[in-house]
Design brief:
Length: about 130
C-alpha cells in the first residue's frame, strides 16, 4: 500500500551539537564515576550581556563542587571564551563571534547535594 510519513530516527542521540537551550532538552547531563557533566548549547541568535554573564560565572565559580568550567559566549560583537578550574578563572575576549555559544561544567562525583536547579536557573537567566 501507499503511505507517506516520516521515519525519524528514534535513536538520535542528544549530542552537544544538536542541543538547544530553549527546549526542555536544553541541556545535557552525564553522570560517571569521575563526576557529573552538565552542558548547555545556546541558540545561535543568543547575544549575551557581558556584565550579567560575568556575574553568573563568578557565582558558579564560587561553588566548591564545580571542578571545571569551559564555555563560549557570543556577545553583541565578538565573544568571550571561558576556561576555569578551581584554582584558575580565565575569561578571554575574542573579536570574532563563534559558531555557537555553549557552557560545560564538570562537578565532583560526591555532588549528591548539588543544587542542579540552582545552576540551571542561573544559566538560563543569561538568555
Amino acid at each position: 500500500h501507499d503511505h507517506d510519513h516520516d521515519h525519524k530516527s528514534l535513536s538520535e542521540k542528544k549530542t552537544l551539537s544538536n542541543l538547544d537551550a530553549h527546549n526542555q532538552e536544553d541541556f545535557y547531563l552525564k553522570v560517571s564515576d569521575d563526576g557529573l557533566n552538565m552542558a548547555w548549547v545556546f541558540p545561535q541568535t543568543a547575544a549575551f550581556d557581558q556584565a550579567l554573564l560575568e556575574s553568573v560565572l563568578e557565582k558558579l565559580n564560587g561553588m566548591e563542587n564545580i571542578l571545571r568550567m569551559k564555555g563560549v559566549f557570543n556577545l553583541a560583537s565578538g565573544a568571550l571564551l571561558l576556561n576555569a578550574t578551581q584554582r584558575d578563572f580565565s575569561l578571554y575576549a575574542n573579536e570574532k563571534k563563534q559558531t555557537e555559544s555553549k557552557l560545560e561544567l564538570i562537578l565532583s562525583a560526591d555532588s549528591e547535594d548539588l543544587n542542579q536547579d540552582q545552576i540551571q536557573s542561573w544559566v538560563l537567566s543569561l538568555l
